[in-house]
Amino acid sequence: MLPEQKDADYFLILKICLLKKLLIHFPLKSLFVGLILFLRLMPVSAQFYDSGEDPASIRWKQINTVNFQVIFPSGSEKEANRVANTLTYIYNYVSRSLGHQPRKISIILHSHSAFSNGFVSWAPKRAEFYTTPDQGSYGQDWLDQLCVHEFRHVVQIDKLNQGITRIASLLLGQQANGAVAGLVPRWFLEGDAVNTETALTSSGRGRMASFEMEVKTLMTSHGGLPAYDKALLGSYKDYIPDYYQVGYPIVAWARKNYGTSLFDNTLDYVGQHPFLPHPFSLGNRKQTGNGNTSLYMAAYSDLKMQWNQQLAKVEETKTTTWNSRYSKNYTSYRFPQYVNETTVLALKTGIDQLKQFVLVYKDGSEKVIHTPGYYYADKLSYAAGIFTWAEEISDVRWNNRSFYCIKTCDLATGNVKLLTRHTRYFAPALSPDGSKIATVEISRNNEYSLVILNAQTGEVIQQIPSPDNKFLQLPEWTKSGNEIIIVTTQQKGKSLELYNVKTSRWKTILAPTHRDITLPSDAGDYFMFTGDYNGTNNIFAVSKSDTSLWQVTNVKFGAFDPAWSSAQNSIVCSQYTPKGYDVSSLAFDPKTWKNARKLTDLSPRLYEASAHQENFNFQDSIIPSKEYPVKRYSKLTHMFNIHSWVPMYYDYNYTSNNMSYQSITPGFTLLSQDKLNTCISSLGYSYNQGNSYLRTGVTYKGLYPVIDLSMSYGGTGTVNLQKGTTAPTAPTKLYTTAFLYVPFNLTQGAVIEGIVPGVQWTYENEMFYYPVEQNYHKGMSYISYSLKAYAYLRTSVRDLAPKWGVSLYSRYLHTPFENEQLSYIWYAQGKVYLPGIIRHHSLQLTGGYQHQDPLRYYYSSGLSYPRGYTAGVGENLTTFSADYAFPIAYPDFNIGPLFYLKRLRGGLFYDVAQERRRSYNTTLKKYEWLSGTPQSIGGSLTADFHLFRIIFPINAGVQYMYFPNERAYSTSIIFRMDLSNY
User: Fold this and answer.
1) Phi/psi zone of residue 892: left (φ > 0), alpha (ψ -120 to 50 degrees), beta?
2) What is the pLDDT of residues 397-434, one digit of tens each?
3) What is the CA radius of gyration of the chain?
């Protein structure tokens, strides 16, 4: 036990003792624990992840094995069969070290997306694979990577379904298991999956120096280890590597020092004791004496010593840094390309800014050229006054259909051209004269081709299938323009190959290796690339004449992205530092290079212990190629999939960020979501204040328009009573809606754009009096037409709101089937986002107008009144508000495991409204116009923080409001929770 953790340890022990006493004396222990879990882990809706929809035209098929159901689009039979074979083969090996064989699970393949990803979700239980590999992938087949990594997540989560968690599953369904998984820190979930993919293969991320680099740099350059909470939950102040990078060294180190059974036993403890505070930490402490914090510090203290020993052996290459660092913020410059002897083009990124293409001058000054859209930073290519890159552009309607399209930019004018549309082109490279582009095309079924395009028109000049369908990565033209150097990936790893455009022949330059090699380029008599032969990423060169291999740079943390200039006889590259990547240059002098064949890997090689424990290498195996029977998968018959339930009622569709308004009442709730994310539904019964309510909702997204249906039945209905009449018996309240809308995504660059037209029908059985008939009628139908439109600039990590943007919402609501009670209401509201006076400050101006023409009754206002006022029913209403938000400080302050403060922020606002409505004066027996101008002025002070190391950030604080008309003031509490970070 480390001294600085003692107080927190005693706090946990005290809470355990109190909980145990409570449980011993509670007669319904199992029910109690289940309810505690539900309340403790709310909002559980964060688990119900909806990854989006595939095109409606897709016909789905399935393969069933003993342990897997693979669901896939028609046409992807070959890939689906391979996934089924691979998962079946690795089932025992991936699950062995956790001592658990999981139950059958569905695997959904998304082949129409150009996005590279995979995830496991547990409510409903399934894994989703996005089958297109990315250009930065390491030396292993992409689908094999997904199978090993994602199936390890399946083992982790399924293993928790034991003991108390198993009982809670009976009470809550699949969401119980998913919720308990939320008690396991993400550094373990991802770190353990990376450790597994590394130990069971020859080329997992744990073997890559680039994967280790950011954590190694952070831990050895800041004079001490970052606090555990900061490493776990991130920071707005400093750059913190992701869960994968932070978690893998801890898991690998712990496996080495405590053996294979450590996390096997810890997950057992979590599953059996989810009601205890921080059960994962307690499980580790029970076996090792170290909780999470102590384990983190012990692992990184040891690794820091080993990394420092590695760094001490580096005889650094002399380089010249081009860029200047004008602030202390983490900022990076990648993929530098010589424009001339004093100018370099590069991609600039940072914690406080968007991606930008910039010109960096040798004197340290810069010029912004363009801000790209969603751009996976794999490479940048420049030649003859233009540069090119590829962006992901989503389908207008379907989230799970996207494309990679090539863009070019004229350096002199800044004009950007979208060269290709609806394509799957990756990592484009300009020929030396700028007339052609070489790019990698990946079909929906992962067939790889090298494609040569006309750089002006985007027309295909030549399409070259990859030999043996090797995965192609990061092509680059030679200086002659006659050949293309490219990285290929096969079973034996990565290699460098050369394609001759004139002879149509392929030639191997560098034999396959499980070392990471990337971003090749031509350098006269050599081909340069980034490699990690000595445990650190450096620039290497292979001789064109005899394929001898040479180390060009020797740096502490990493050198990447080499580009050679014959005119300057120098190399420009990206060199990693504690504050990000720098643009660096060095002399091109082969006489100073070292023979790379004699290098020794100086890294700690964390993977070796786990690999020895596993004693199995997936990449050395021959995967069976059994032909599984393929059957049709019907979306219709699988539309309803009840995955979870709750022995009480809560609003599953609740979307407000202010969780204080979420209500829980006696009753039950059934939750359903189909595995293709097209139909989400719920059915609930609640008993509240003596009334029974039945509520249901169905959202179907499998057609072009989204269909959203809801119904509520229960309680006492509304009677709009007319004086002098006999009041009828109020009916049981019925409220039902049908909403059709189409969420058009129009984004094609840095500005996020969209438009959502919709139409909604609503029926409510409220009662109105009709004077002509002198009777009450029950029921009113409403129809509304709405339009939402938005366009705003993407935000950086530190931004509180978009720097620039606009949004508009307009709605027209009427009752077309009657003409005595209600007429219509129309309102529109627009918002403008503007930059503040200081970076990351935001000014938001909102204005709205509303008009309604009442017959006998008013509609409720569709616009918000000034803060602090109750909304009225004005016939004419004009509103305006100004909000100014700004960050105050980034404390990164924690109190043990209880509280972690990441940011303080402030806000100022002014709200005003002008309303006019008619009121009947009974004395004068006529209508009079009434008007008012409510307004409020105020400010807020809030904090962004985490409680109990839960990953969902909370924003809470106090708001002060002053009302000039009344000369009064009030205060209120602000509480919001961000559920998107899961």
Assistant:
1) left
2) 999 999 999 999 999 999 999 999 999 999 999 999 99
3) 31
